[in-house]
Design brief:
single chain; alpha/beta; 5-stranded mixed sheet; two-stranded parallel ribbon; 10 helices; 13% strand
């Protein structure tokens, strides 16, 4: 890790396999929380409260870095005091392949509110977290809500395509796609005030992630995602 001082903290929310034992054997400190208390924000806050570093790195259990230089590239962005957080994305805010580093500010976040920082594999400043922890009541999108709070106060979020990790849910089973979309849409609506849109209108709207309108219309995975998002926005009302 290029001489970086690193401590590893694993939040275990009721695993019943050898996860905790394997993590401890690898040198991690395991902190347990009851499964019924789990939210993403609560788990992140618990881990952050146990950490001693100035920069805190969040990495989901199903996100995998692709090379040994990832952590060094991530923390290098924090040489600028204006950077509140940093993560990777392979797509830009206008759904085109991201080929350069983007410094997202409040104006860009307002234009593309669903695009930005991700705790799936990203880092944030400990001093900012101490001043304002993640919301524990949100079922999802606690990362975007937290980042937006600081962007509106003059900070920036770095989105770097060189920080992309293996973290793909596009081929999950349909019920899981539905639940994930519902959770994220509900969380986003809880802090953005987003109102439910007509499902038929959304169904026939262009989707830049698909090569053609026909592919978008017949995709069963897209259908599960749209239905889940619609249900999530309604739950947040």
């Amino acid at each position: 890790m290029g001489g970086l001082g690193v401590e590893t903290i694993v939040i275990d929310s009721g695993s019943n396999d050898r996860t905790a034992a394997l993590a401890e054997a690898a040198g991690a400190r395991v902190v347990s929380m009851p499964a019924h208390e789990f939210t993403f924000g609560r788990a992140l806050n618990l881990g952050a409260s146990e950490a001693r570093g100035d920069l805190l790195v969040a990495l989901s259990a199903d996100a995998f870095v692709t090379d040994q230089g990832w952590l060094c590239r991530l923390v290098a962005h924090f040489g600028d005091d204006r950077v509140a957080c940093a993560s990777g994305d392979s797509w830009s805010h206008d759904a085109l392949p991201l080929r350069r580093i983007v410094r997202q500010d409040a104006n860009l976040a307002r234009r593309s509110p669903r695009w930005g920082y991700s705790n799936a594999a990203g880092a944030f400043r400990a001093e900012l977290w101490r001043a304002r922890p993640f919301r524990e009541d949100l079922p999802g999108c606690e990362d975007q809500e937290w980042a937006l709070h600081w962007l509106e106060r003059g900070y920036v979020c770095v989105i770097d395509p060189a920080l992309v990790v293996e973290h793909d849910h596009t081929h999950d089973p349909l019920p899981r796609i539905y639940r994930r979309a519902r959770r994220e849409a509900e969380g986003f609506a809880m802090f953005s005030g987003e109102e439910p849109t007509g499902l038929i209108r959304e169904w026939f709207s262009p989707d830049p992630y698909y090569g053609s309108r026909l592919k978008a219309l017949v995709s069963h995975r897209r259908a599960a995602r749209l239905l889940g998002a619609y249900a999530g926005r309604r739950r947040a009302r």
